[in-house]
Amino acid sequence: MKPGQAAATPETQSPDSRSQSLLQRAYVAVVGGDFAETDDPTRTRLLDAAFDQFCRMGIQRSSMEEVARRAGLSRITIYRKFDTKDALVEQVLLREFRRYFLRFLADIREADTAAERVELGFVSSLRSILGNPLIGGLIETEPTLLAGSIGADDGRMLAAVRQFVAAQLRKEQIAGNIAAELDTELTAEVMVRVSNSFLTVPSQLIDVHDDEQLAAVARQYLVPMLEPRPT
After folding, report:
1. Where is the composition biased (Polar residues) (predicted)?
2. pTM above 0.85?
3. Does residue 16 carry a pLDDT above 90?
4. Cα–Cα distance for residue pair 47/196, rounded to 1 Å
5. Taking burial as the number of CB atoms within 10 A of a residue's CB, which of 96, 118, 146, 181 is the most buried?
């Protein structure tokens, strides 16, 4: 959040903002530079407590009162900050998705070439999701709840990540690192769908928790996508 800027609430967000998936909102925040943690210590304390509670017990089995107790705060205090449990869950997930995009950008900065950035980005994206105790846990135990929370049921989740990846590919084009004629949107779409398949469908061949195996997949199948094919 920029200095002097009030935090957006469900009442102050624009209709377009409210209709976006959480991933889309996280992407917009990161691209717009509006990703700083809240400067409200009580709100941060509650978000941290909720994250811990949800990781331990799951979202459906956790109550607002349990989150308040874990934070060492009163029931009245948590309802002053978050009107409903859904609002609290939304803000916890939104914070994790913002961190996901920021982690991705930090990881690819370590690479020297576009090919290396694709490889590192693929590994980072899977590691950040599966290694997150909340998001990774929801994928395994409460996938329907996660899908409903982030708008994954109508393709908006994939669209948000595709938009993010396509933007990175366009930067590579502008820098002259990949061919100008590469269809960045289509390439990003395929890359994201490959990544999503590893997240949602267990593989009997690839250990998704093994960075070396994931990097090998990226080198063999994703990096070649940077070369445009004749139509």
Report:
1. 10-20
2. no
3. no
4. 27
5. 118
